[in-house]
Amino acid sequence: MAARKPRREDTHMCAAADGEPVLPRTFTGKFHRIRIAAEFPRITLRNLRHTSVSVMLHAGIPASTVAAWHGHDVRMTTAVYSRVYDEGLTAAASAMFGTDKAV
């Protein structure tokens, strides 16, 4: 029986019961089997992660919170994911000019 390796709290990884790291392909394979059984279209876990970040930012969740949730540095999150949505432009126009139309 192998000795259990202690899990380090400063890393972003999953560990098996014996402390060995679980490789990402393990989750990918399980995810695709579930996706196929559910008859969902092909999508990767990476795409779902990107969608999660975009949805949270679009919902107005602070970038610092989104970054922490996904294990990112806030600068990376804002550089890669920050986009201006039409609703944001409309809100900005309303605040600046008292109108509900984007300029």
Automatic annotation (TrEMBL):
<dbReference type="InterPro" id="IPR002104">
    <property type="entry name" value="Integrase_catalytic"/>
</dbReference>
<dbReference type="InterPro" id="IPR011010">
    <property type="entry name" value="DNA_brk_join_enz"/>
</dbReference>
<keyword id="KW-0233">DNA recombination</keyword>
<dbReference type="InterPro" id="IPR013762">
    <property type="entry name" value="Integrase-like_cat_sf"/>
</dbReference>
<dbReference type="Pfam" id="PF00589">
    <property type="entry name" value="Phage_integrase"/>
</dbReference>
<protein>
    <submittedName>
        <fullName>Tyrosine-type recombinase/integrase</fullName>
    </submittedName>
</protein>
<feature type="domain" description="Tyr recombinase">
    <location>
        <begin position="1"/>
        <end position="94"/>
    </location>
</feature>
